[in-house]
TrEMBL record, chains A, B:
PANTHER family: RECOMBINATION PROTEIN RECR. InterPro entries: DNA_Rcmb_RecR, Rcmb_RecR_Znf, TOPRIM_dom, TOPRIM_RecR. Residues 80-175 form the Toprim domain. A zinc finger (C4-type) spans 57-72. The lineage of its organism: Bacteria, Pseudomonadati, Pseudomonadota, Gammaproteobacteria, Oceanospirillales. The gene is recR. Keywords: DNA damage, DNA recombination, DNA repair, Metal-binding, Zinc, Zinc-finger. May play a role in DNA repair. It seems to be involved in an RecBC-independent recombinational process of DNA repair. It may act with RecF and RecO. This is Recombination protein RecR. It holds the Pfam family RecR_ZnF. It comes from the Bacteria. It comes from Marinobacterium weihaiense. NCBIfam families: recR.
């Protein structure tokens, strides 16, 4: 056996990274030990610091080192338009389009009764409280266009049917069955422009 | 800006990993923070432990946590046949063929005057001392079939022309210009079987 126990541990630990199989984990471990030991220590420190100090924004549940995230604190953003997303990765994808000037609410998942994920786990009370307080003019439901994402959007829309908030769902452009984080910026911008209301009109 | 400073540091640090660009570093960082914080801490610890405790074998320069590596300590291996390689990754590739029962000497590089890498940096004194002490029957030069690898093999062969050791070079099968670590096991085994002597015969 040519791998030392600590090397084997390191290779195993590197497999926690998404997209890293046994072969690339081995190459990464050897690369760090042979050619970039200071890079390895910097990475270890960065991991520890991030795990210890990056929490979630008290308002929107986005990743944040402060009580409030930079977006919620930015007075140039329109706090009356709230985009509801499944994860911080999706938030980043929307931010990178540069076309959205509202704020966010990050569910950190979607409704999934089988996994015990209900409204509480998604922090929906907090979102509904913002709506009830009259702080929100429009709620853009940008959950993934998957079965679970649609069900989650549907649930939120049902809960808010009687409120005054404008409820919209991003629509055109995002491929059905796909995930927001893999959609290009142009498609996403298009999806935002084509959003439609989920409120039942009175004569419906 | 939707990334916190610590997240940006973590993403930067992840790029020390070979094959990881800005986009995958971002996905890795978010995955760890959102879904696998204990995996992140395990990875940090594994990195620190490996950097601190994995050194090199005093005999063959392979990565080792002990004074001697497991291969040099294995009495079932033939210490009279020494395979000279550029890196531990190459060693691992040869080990994985399962067809070599000798021991190794890892140069950790190749001769490269332009980068200030000469015989000293490759530990060649240590290798030559083993040959001079009569411990080696055959020295298999398995440096990469690149210009530098060939030059390094040539240099070692020149230095040992007057010794009694059998000097061989792996030959058939390894694609010229390629690197050992990317060659499949069958090709490598073939290359070992087809090795040829580098000693000039008397009547040459
Ligand atoms: Zn926030
Ligand atoms: Zn050794």
């Amino acid at each position: 056996m040519s791998l030392t126990p600590l090397l084997q541990e390191l290779i195993g630990a590197l497999r926690a990274l998404p997209g890293v199989g046994p072969k690339s984990a081995q190459r990464m471990a050897l690369h760090l030990l042979e050619r970039d030991r200071s890079g390895a220590l910097t990475l270890a420190e960065a991991l520890e610091q991030a795990v210890e100090r990056v929490g979630e924004c008290a308002t929107c549940r986005n990743l944040s080192e402060q009580e409030q995230c930079a977006i919620c604190e930015d007075s140039a953003r329109d706090a009356g338009v709230v985009c509801v997303l499944e994860s911080p990765v999706d938030l980043m994808a929307v931010e990178q389009t540069g076309g959205f000037n509202g704020v966010y609410f990050v569910l950190k998942g979607h409704l999934s009764p089988i996994d015990g994920i209900g409204p509480d786990e998604l922090g929906l009370e907090r979102l509904f409280a913002r709506v009830d307080a009259g702080q929100v003019r429009e709620l853009i439901l940008a959950t993934n266009p998957t079965v679970e994402g649609e069900a989650t959007a549907h649930y939120i829309a049902e809960q808010l049917q009687d409120s005054d908030v404008n409820l919209t769902r991003i629509a055109h452009g995002v491929p059905v069955g796909g995930e927001l984080e893999f959609v290009d910026g142009g498609t996403l911008a298009h999806a935002f422009a084509g959003r439609r209301s989920l409120k039942r009109s009175v004569d419906e």
